[in-house]
Amino acid sequence: MMPSTTGLRLKRAPARLLGLLFWLAVWQAAAMAVGHEFLLASPLRVMISLLELLSKPGTYLVAARSTWRVLLGFLAALAFALALAAAAGKWELAQALAAPLVSAARAVPVASFVILAIILVSTRWLSSLIAFVIGFPVIYASLLEGLRSRDPKLSEMALIFNVPPLRRLMYVNLPQLAPYLRAGAVSALGLCFKSGIAAEVIGIPPGTIGEKLYSVKVNYYTAELFAWTIIIVLLSMICVFSLRRLMDLGIKKLASR
Question: How far is it, in rounded angstroms, from Cα 152 to Cα 169?
Answer without folding.
Answer: 14
